[in-house]
Design brief:
about 400 residues, alpha+beta, 7-stranded antiparallel sheet, about 35% helix
Length: about 400
């Protein structure tokens, strides 16, 4: 009877505001609890809590025995009370993971809150809030694919993240402007649980850098230091914007990634003669002819490529870990004549995969093929979300200067 009474009391506590979702990752319907912290958590987060027993002691809400004192402690605390305490000084730029994020982010978030108490004591936030960070990361070589130790320097004052090929090098191998910097954890793609993908724009094309650090806290600190630098840059760039407006712009996960087949335009031999003639007549005529052939049916063979949907940039790579995309397609909004269609034109040939997608832009059509119907539906849904979103003023400039590599 006592066990049943405790279980009923705990289930009633789960109905209170804040308790219906995991205290750490917001997963719905938590079935576990930390009776030393007074919070309700999901199964996945309970495993992380078990690894810090000196801080958190975990029980199942439904299966374990609870004494009256433990139930009373849960009743006097709860998720909202814990949040007010353990997240009281959390900086707005710090990434708060959800149940969709990788294990590393969720683990370091939980350790930062309860073990290190970083959001109770602001001085413990120095590794990612100081505006300057220097250290070594393992970086994947662009050509040979080997990971080598490289020195990285992040400076808000200089507005850049730099890395050096040699420890004593005076000039950096690359300078990545904070303005165009993004970072996202990619453990599966990189093949390391601490794998971080950093991207920046180089000559208006996306450049990928893949890094990791053996220490989980170290790589997450780098990630949040990049977000902090981006936050302070955007505060200056948009002085009237609120934190709520700026935080979504600090870093972004990709909308979708995966393999598709693609084809491109293949001009007939006569087109080359016509283009040469047009070039002699002047730039205006040449551009008209180019636009005409860009709208021709695609006849080049389909090739399997790895695709990444990053905001409005659809990039494709021969290999997921390539440094540069083979090509990029800008996807605007439906108000600007962009649309996505299920299937391929009837005369299309050469695709091995049968589930087609056609993206229509103001200048041409792009043809893709997916291996499964589920993949096709997921990609179409992703494209439709992008196209249904009105373009921002700055995105018109991106569209105007966009370079597509066929």
């Amino acid at each position: 009877m006592a066990k049943e009474r405790s279980r009923k009391a705990l289930l009633e506590l789960l109905q209170r505001p804040g308790n219906a979702a995991c205290a750490d990752c917001a997963a719905p319907d938590p079935d576990w609890a930390s009776h030393s912290l007074g919070i309700f958590i999901c199964l996945n987060c309970s495993g992380i809590h078990r690894n810090i027993p000196q801080v958190s002691k975990v029980k199942s809400v439904r299966l374990d025995d609870w004494d009256d004192a433990q139930v009373e402690f849960m009743a006097s605390n709860g998720n909202n009370v814990a949040k007010a305490k353990y997240e009281s000084k959390m900086p707005p730029f710090y990434y708060k993971p959800t149940f969709l994020d990788c294990q590393l982010l969720r683990e370091q978030w939980i350790r930062a809150k309860y073990e290190r108490k970083e959001f109770i004591h602001s001085e413990k936030q120095e590794p990612y809030s100081a505006g300057y960070r220097e250290g070594f990361l393992w970086k994947r070589g662009r050509d040979n694919g080997q990971f080598l130790s490289r020195k990285f320097v992040l400076s808000e004052r200089e507005g850049a993240l730099k890395y050096f090929n040699k420890n004593d090098a005076k000039e950096p191998k690359a300078i990545m402007k904070i303005e165009h910097l993004n970072a996202t954890f990619q453990p599966a793609k990189i093949g390391n649980p601490h794998g971080l993908q950093i991207t920046y724009l180089k000559d208006n094309s996306t450049r990928n850098i893949f890094v990791y650090h053996e220490d989980g806290k170290e790589i997450v600190d780098w990630f949040n230091a990049i977000r902090a630098a981006r936050f302070h840059y955007l505060q200056v760039a948009f002085p009237g914007a609120s934190d709520v407006d700026l935080v979504p712009k600090l870093s972004r996960n990709y909308l979708k990634e995966g393999y598709m087949e693609k084809t491109g335009p293949k001009a007939p031999p006569s087109a080359l003669v016509l283009l040469g003639h047009a070039a002699k007549q002047g730039a205006a005529l040449l551009w008209c002819v180019i636009r005409h052939f860009l709208t021709l049916q695609q006849t080049e063979g389909f090739k399997k490529r790895w695709f990444t949907m990053d905001d409005r940039r659809l990039m494709y790579f021969k290999d997921p870990l390539d440094a540069f995309a083979r090509g990029e397609v800008f996807i605007g909004s439906k108000e600007n004549s962009y649309k996505v269609l299920e299937g391929l034109p009837p005369s299309t040939q050469g695709n091995h995969w049968q589930h087609g997608i056609t993206i229509v832009t103001p200048d041409r059509k792009f043809l893709f093929a997916c291996e499964t119907e589920d993949d096709q539906l997921e990609w179409i849904t992703t494209f439709q979300k992008v196209i249904s979103r009105p373009m921002l003023p700055q995105e018109y400039a991106v569209e105007a200067h966009f370079k597509h590599k066929p």
